[in-house]
Design a protein that fits this description.
FAD/NAD(P)-binding domain; 3 domains; 10 helices; about 400 residues; globular; five-stranded parallel β-sheet; alpha/beta; Enolase-like, domain 1; binds flavin-adenine dinucleotide
Amino acid sequence: MRVVIVGAGQAGAALAAKLRALGHTGEIVMLGDEPAPPYQRPPLSKAYLLGEMEEDRLWLRSPDFWVEQRVELRLGQPVTAIDPAGRTVTVGGEVLAYDHLALTTGSSPRRLPAAIGGALPGVYTVRTLADVDAMRGEFRPGRRVIIVGGGYIGLEAAAVASKLGLAVTVVEMAPRILQRVASPETSDYVRALHQVHGVAVLESTGLDRLVGEDRVTGAVLKDGRELPADFVIVGVGITPNTALAEAAGLALDNGIATDEMGRTSDPAIWSAGDCASFPWVGGRIRLESVGNAIDQAEAVAANILGAGEPYQAKPWFWSDQFDLKLQIAGLNSGYDHIVTRKGEGEAVSFWYYRGDALLAVDAMNDPRAYMVGKRLIEMGKSPAAEVIASAPDLKALLKG
Ligand code: FAD
């Protein structure tokens, strides 16, 4: 049985490795359009951008691993078509047959329209190793960078730029940074952190356009203000890579729609990672995180081999900014109140509740709160708000 994987990223790599770990002996072909072997993206806006991590530490597995595991890696070539009826994909002019196909095509950063300067040289997005290598030379002390978008990736890039001695301005259209993903408490904490380090955080501030002749030289804001810049980073979210699936006639719904097994509307085609949406508490969800990419891909590998086990997402995420390690467990959507817990020293955590139900926790430099919160959520336990706020020993809540 030949399994073909389209997309050699976090999910694709996990899927291939898991197939072998579960005893699949047939062919595995993994096709990637990037030239690099499967690598981790989180350091691209953190340690790697800062220059504190070598490139080869990004690789998810050593090059030998793929050879030893008999995973045929073909890099630098996009898959251009799927023929679900004939069970083939087209890559570099070749037509390749599959028994099972897995789409782990990830996502692409949203770009600003060219009409408002989005295509000017000096305007960058942060998704691939090539993106970061292209912008690295811009990070020189004393230069000015505008970050468009106050989400995690933009804020991480802002922190790196600030650490390297650049003058940083974050421009966020919404009333607060991280509005889409976090509570006002978390936004306030992160904003204060950036401001202490001298980052200018402009919220409720729309971008009218980027300006420049041969390359970007600044931005004009909706309120008419003009900001000079030596370069610009755009971090305004991502869109799932669904074009191949769409052209093949697969069902889409905020991504490639799968059932709880990870199977798409075609029984021989599966999907996992940033590009896939799956059933979740009566609706559908698509997650953009390493944890989800790995867990969902591993579930798909098992199901390709016939396990028949529904994917149980256990969302978690992290972000590093300055000396802040933010760890998030659960999903906060639908929360109606927040409980704040002070940890040791500077540690603090925000616990999201809907009624009496604990949904999620954001832990700031508080690994214990994160670990306990994650376990509680997975166990379906919801301690009372006052217990969370004041329990002397959080770990004790896991017992009984
Ligand atoms: P990817 O890793 O993007 O892999 C998909 C691959 O498929 C890509 O190489 C793509 O080019 C390729 N592809 C697409 N179409 C084709 C085609 N037609 N043919 C061949 N190949 C194709 N998550 C966290 O949990 N914590 C973090 O701190 C964090 N930080 C991040 C920082 C940055 C800068 C970025 C960009 C992401 C970060 N993430 C973080 C998110 C995390 O990296 C992604 O959720 C994860 O990489 C998703 O894995 P994936 O396999 O779905 O997609």
